């Protein structure tokens, strides 16, 4: 298909562009970060191609990004020698939105009074930010695939775009922005230099402006910890996580055995899954001797650590490993083991040195650790000491760990007890706590259904069974009253008791499987007991909801 085509943007793209073009932004300069990051992605992909011995067009072109400005014409051009795009790829990549999270982003953006486009890159729509500053965007591109022709994509961002054939192009992509009248500043070399320093300093390819390299190309993770400043770490974090704030936690470590590893891992400030942005993609990139093998490396960390951002560099990974073999290679399995172990140990240390800070982390990211504890049999016992719960002995809103629970536990208590309820008030008003209050025993409060899956899956902690207080057998120690066997006045015995139980069973029919005399109640007349040993009541409710 060699002719010129005019094509409509997908509806979601139109919607997004409408917002991008017609709103006012204070931080428009982030468009440059997005375009440079796309150029860097395309260069990484190309570099990977050449390493894996695939033939490419123009094999001798240096891998770099070039920026040109023209202050008279008010144009800004960003070129790269990366993968380029074919005609079909242009349509797919610059005419539609593929990623699932982008819809949520779009909706939030449409509703927000103060539009913040800073997150645009995280939702797979960074390219369109060009229209914040450009009245027209031209993309000249030629794919690295031998035999592919060059193409030109042009749009003013309103409704449609055109694609045409373009001759005389070398491999890669050139994006020409015809700047809006009020965006002339972005044709000034000083402005561009400042923005690149700010957002794109760590792009691992030279960024060249007027014949000069303006970024610091360096792999911070292989440098000595003592020589790196907090600012450098933060700047690097912003670059790799596409973030605009500081990391919450940072772990930089190297190991020689069992594998040679340099790793720099970060925990962000926010868990975006909490805001309905869909499932977070893996955030750690895999390198071998400073060459990126995979940007969002699957399998490098277990799924439940997908909120972790960073880089891992290991000399032991063969550089020409293919993505397919990488996912299930034994080597990656060993890497995962080292990284996961080290990261969990790090969290344990953080919880000790600054429990309040860890508590804040737990509020936002605890759900991921719970996911691991409930589903990952390899790590559930390692995650257990990191779990936090409210309890009958914690202040409202404060947490206890299983270890704290064990420390406080009286000697005659056999198990660790917990009970599920939506809030502290609901649990404390219910009948399940009575027997424990009477004995001054601590009960963990689980507020979310997943908690019960976690504790049931763990089954025990440091040789103590985890028992839900709605189970029939609680193994509670005798109270003073039990020992004295003083006998309650008016207590039903023998036939009287039997008749009452039979009457109640008959009245309730199939709603209950059995009516029993209870020894656990203090003030309440009756309590529902869960006869299913495998599942707590809250788990049963979840399963029922799933079956509907
Ligand atoms: P994301 O980068 O998160 O995928 P973008 O909106 O920034 O989202 O870019 C969309 C897609 O367009 C990219 O995934 C890529 O396939 C393609 N693309 C953008 N810029 C370039 C470029 N300079 N070279 C090659 N492909 C590009
Ligand atoms: Mg992008």
TrEMBL record:
UniProt lists the family membership as follows: Belongs to the heat shock protein 90 family.
* Record Gene3D superfamilies: 3.30.230.80, 3.40.50.11260, Heat shock protein 90, C-terminal domain (1.20.120.790), Histidine kinase-like ATPase, C-terminal domain (3.30.565.10)
Q: Which positions are annotated as binding ATP?
A: 34, 38, 80, 85, 93, 100-101, 122-127, 173, 323
CDD domains according to UniProt = HATPase_Hsp90-like
Where does this protein reside within or beyond the cell?
Answer: Cytoplasm
One Pfam family assigned to this protein is HATPase_c_3
Quaternary structure note: Homodimer.
Q: Does the keyword Cytoplasm apply?
A: yes
**SUPFAM superfamilies documented for this protein:** ATPase domain of HSP90 chaperone/DNA topoisomerase II/histidine kinase, HSP90 C-terminal domain, Ribosomal protein S5 domain 2-like
A: annotated span: 1-323
Q: Name one GO cellular component term.
A: cytoplasm
Keyword GTP-binding assigned to the entry: answer is no
* Task performed by this protein: Molecular chaperone. Has ATPase activity.
- Source organism of the structure: Sporotomaculum syntrophicum
Q: Which UniProt keywords apply?
A: ATP-binding, Chaperone, Cytoplasm, Nucleotide-binding, Stress response
Name the InterPro entries for this protein: HATPase_C_sf, Heat_shock_protein_90_CS, HSP90_C, Hsp90_fam, Hsp90_N, Ribosomal_Su5_D2-typ_SF
Predominant cellular place of this UniProt entry's protein: cytoplasm
List the protein's name: Chaperone protein HtpG
Report which residue ranges the record marks as coiled coil.
none
Q: MF terms per GO, please?
A: ATP binding; ATP hydrolysis activity; ATP-dependent protein folding chaperone; unfolded protein binding
């Amino acid at each position: 298909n060699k002719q010129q085509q005019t094509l409509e943007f997908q509806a979601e793209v139109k919607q997004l562009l409408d917002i991008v073009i017609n709103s006012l932004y204070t931080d428009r300069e982030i468009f440059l970060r997005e375009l440079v990051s796309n150029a860097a992605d395309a260069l990484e992909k190309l570099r990977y191609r050449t390493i894996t011995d695939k033939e490419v067009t123009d094999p001798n072109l240096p891998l770099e990004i070039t920026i040109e400005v023209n202050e008279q014409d008010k144009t800004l051009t960003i070129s790269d020698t990366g993968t380029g795009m074919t005609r079909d790829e242009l349509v797919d990549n610059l005419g539609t939105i593929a990623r699932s999270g982008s819809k949520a982003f779009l909706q939030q953006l449409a509703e927000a009074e103060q539009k913040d486009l800073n997150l645009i890159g995280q939702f797979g729509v960074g390219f369109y930010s060009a229209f914040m500053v450009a009245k027209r965007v031209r993309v000249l591109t030629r794919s690295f695939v031998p035999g592919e022709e060059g193409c030109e994509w042009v749009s003013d961002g309103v409704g449609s775009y055109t694609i045409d054939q373009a001759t005389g192009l070398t491999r890669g992509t050139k994006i020409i922005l015809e700047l809006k009248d009020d965006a002339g500043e972005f044709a000034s070399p000083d402005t561009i230099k400042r923005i690149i320093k700010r957002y794109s300093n760590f792009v691992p390819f030279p960024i060249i402006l007027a014949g000069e390299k303006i970024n610091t190309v360096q792999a911070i993770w292989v440098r000595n910890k003592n020589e790196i400043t907090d600012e450098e770490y933060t700047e690097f974090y912003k670059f790799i996580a596409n973030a605009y704030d500081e990391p919450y936690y940072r772990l930089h470590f190297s190991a020689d055995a069992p594998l040679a590893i340099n790793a720099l891992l970060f925990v962000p400030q926010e868990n975006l899954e909490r805001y309905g942005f869909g499932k977070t993609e893996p955030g750690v990139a895999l390198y071998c001797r400073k060459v990126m093998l995979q940007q969002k490396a699957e399998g490098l960390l277990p799924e439940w650590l997908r909120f972790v951002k960073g880089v891992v560099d290991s000399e032991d990974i063969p550089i020409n490993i293919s993505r397919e073999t990488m996912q299930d290679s034994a080597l990656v399995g060993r890497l995962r083991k080292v990284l996961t172990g080290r990261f969990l140990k790090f969290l344990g240390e953080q919880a000790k040195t600054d429990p309040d800070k860890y508590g804040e982390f737990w509020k936002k990211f605890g759900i991921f650790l719970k996911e691991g504890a409930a589903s990952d049999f390899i790590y559930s016992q390692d995650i257990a000491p990191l779990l936090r719960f409210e309890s009958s002995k914690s202040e409202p809103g404060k947490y206890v760990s299983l270890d704290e629970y064990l420390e406080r536990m009286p000697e005659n208590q056999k198990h660790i007890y917990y009970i599920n309820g939506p809030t502290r008030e609901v649990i404390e008003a219910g009948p399940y706590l009575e027997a424990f209050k009477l004995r001054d025993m601590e009960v963990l409060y689980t507020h979310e259904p997943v908690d019960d899956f976690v504790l049931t899956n763990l089954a025990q902690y440091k040789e103590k069974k985890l028992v839900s207080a709605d189970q029939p057998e609680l193994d509670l120690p005798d109270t003073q009253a039990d020992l004295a066997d003083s006998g309650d006045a008016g207590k039903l015995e023998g036939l009287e008791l039997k008749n009452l139980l039979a009457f109640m069973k008959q009245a309730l029919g199939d709603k209950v499987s059995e009516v029993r005399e209870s020894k656990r109640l203090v003030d309440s007349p009756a309590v529902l007991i869960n006869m299913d040993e495998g599942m707590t009541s809250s788990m049963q409710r979840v399963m029922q909801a799933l079956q509907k």
